[in-house]
Design goal:
With 247 residues, the chain is of the alpha/beta class. It contains 6 helices and 5 strands; from the N terminus they run ααβαββββααα. It has a 5-stranded mixed β-sheet, with helices on one face.
């Protein structure tokens, strides 16, 4: 009986200790929520600005044409066929998000706005195992053309499926290609644009945040050449509206 009373007193003392500590923990949680729990519309503005600008280009850079021609070139192996199908499905979604129509060109001599080359090799660096590349032409701050290279071969020992390894590659590089020229490092929002995370933590497809960024980039209230200071209040308005739609 004495042992039972002793245990009860210890439990009661521990409970009183936690009672006294709770206000401090509550304050800590409140501070943490203030740091990471800013309104989602503000987080999206921050993510947009981190992804769309860089020191040497502090203006909106995007396509201004509502219709773009696109050509697919390269090998026709099994992985390439899967990659082409995947790319075509992502272009359909990109049209839904941006309002841009993509018109395929089939002749080798055509000069498309976007040229996608499937290459029978692995494009690798020391960190990512799989890497695609995009380069673009700019005219008067507007995007004028894209070259996208997609390696269709997996890295040695890579277990990812074609959809996993090439799907992220397509989504990541197409976001670069339509105006998001930088890799965000500080956002709390999950995005396919990050490169500093491990392969298991990176988003493999466009997240909801990515899709909202694309919709914002091609909102008619923005235009190529608009500087950061002019665009910011417009972006705040756009993201408040987009977040309201998702709730």
């Amino acid at each position: 009986m004495r042992g039972w009373h002793s245990g009860l007193r210890q439990w009661h003392g521990a409970f009183r200790h936690w009672q006294r500590a709770l206000p401090g923990f509550a304050l800590l949680l409140l501070v943490g929520s203030c740091i990471t729990g800013a309104p989602r519309s503000k987080q999206l503005v921050d993510l947009f600005e981190e992804a769309a600008y860089r020191q040497d280009r502090n203006v909106i850079t995007r396509f201004e044409k509502s219709e773009l021609t696109i050509a697919l070139r390269g090998e026709n192996g099994a992985d390439s066929t899967d990659a082409r199908t995947l790319l075509e499905s992502r272009l359909v979604r990109l049209t839904e998000l941006s309002g841009i129509s993509f018109v395929p060109l089939d002749h080798e001599n055509d000069r498309p706005d976007i040229l996608v080359i499937f290459e029978p090799r692995t494009l690798v660096d020391t960190k990512k195992n799989f890497l695609c590349l995009v380069s673009y032409r700019v005219s008067d701050f507007a995007l004028a053309g894209l070259l996208v290279r997609i390696g269709t071969q997996p890295a040695i020992g890579e277990a990812q499926s074609v959809e996993e390894r090439i799907g992220r590659c397509i989504d990541h590089e197409m976001m670069h290609g339509i105006g998001f020229i930088s890799h965000p490092l500080n956002s709390f929002l999950r995005t396919v644009m990050t490169t500093h995370q491990g392969t298991t933590q990176r988003a493999r497809r466009w997240t909801e945040s990515d899709e909202l960024l694309i919709r914002a980039m091609y909102d008619p209230r923005l235009t190529s050449g608009m500087n950061r200071e002019v665009a910011e209040p417009i972006l705040r308005e756009i993201f408040i509206e987009l977040v309201a739609e998702t709730q």
